């Protein structure tokens, strides 16, 4: 090779690695297009770059943890939804495949390769082969079912990392506190999807407390947090009253939002954040009572067309929430104790002779017939024996009298 000749570059060598900003931009675009699996991959690559550049505990890394966790959550929800829809179809297909397998072959069944000839078939081998195929299909289905659960767990772990960083740095600014509130709400979403309702209540409550302190009542984030908390409380035994309270507060928030939109459209003014004196804020003695932030959904950031569109949307949402509140109020009160606890108490009462607790309003009434038995008693026991004993004793006496009368009649007939 001469000195003037240069080696030909391969495609891999000429393709430059994407920068952190480009990788994040690709992840955001995939997330917006609901291509969550691609978004997860891009955010994972971005995190690998960011941790090397900023460190694992930096605020920039926390933002990426948050975005990565949301992508994992949405991907898990999408995958579980797809598997849920296909589950019934897969079961039906497997049944059809099992039924279509010819486990029996009678003499005279023609074989395509040997027309006109009787071909011997190993029935046991055919049955074993079909059974192995069904087992393999079930294993594949079990692996598919495990994938969303793994994604939910991964989303929880990543979001919890972001929560720890935001929690440590929350005193830096109200914006960091709002991010912490968003993390709690998203953690509640993960717990709600995985049916860990107690944990969801804890996280939703923590996020709602922060948002209520930072945002105005008219913020859609307040309505959303109250509504999600209402949903999980409705799914929790004995928390129907709390669910109604939060559903009503979500409705109040939507109505406040509608009022603000109408005021803005009529030119009457907008909700503004409360300005707090820096000196008082440093000493912790600020007297501000209004919202400290407006949030990304602030009406002041919207155009007139956006306001009109949201007003129409919120009118329908208000009607739906009002119906939801009425539905919750007309729901029957649930027992505060679980079914196993009620069954254990009933069994204990039966064994120890303790009267069972009265039936709930939703159960059919069971009438006590003890009083009717007492009214038929003619000769009460002198020692005050229980009614059941008296009735039993009376039945035995009647039996003895009947036997003595029969004996007397027999003696008269023989004499």
Summarize the structure in words.
The chain is mainly alpha-helical. Helix content is 68%, strand content 0%. It contains 14 helices and no strands. It has helices at residues 11-14, 20-32, 36-53, 59-100, 123-168, 174-193, 197-214, 220-234, 240-266, 278-283, 304-329, 339-352, 370-375, 387-414. Helix 2 (20-32) packs antiparallel against helix 3, helix 6 packs antiparallel against helix 7 (197-214) and helix 9 packs antiparallel against helix 11. The chain is globular, with a radius of gyration of 37 Å. It starts with 10 loop residues before the first helix and ends with a helix. 24% of the residues are buried.
Protein traits:
68% helix; 415 residues; 0% strand; mainly alpha
Structural class: mainly alpha
| Broad shape | globular
Helix content: 55-70%
Mean pLDDT equals: 74
Please sum up the structure shown:
The chain is mainly α and 415 residues long.
Tell me the layout of helices and strands.
Elements: H1 11-14, H2 20-32, H3 36-53, H4 59-100, H5 123-168, H6 174-193, H7 197-214, H8 220-234, H9 240-266, H10 278-283, H11 304-329, H12 339-352, H13 370-375, H14 387-414
Helix pairs in contact: 2-3, 3-4, 4-5, 4-6, 5-6, 6-7, 7-8, 8-9, 9-11
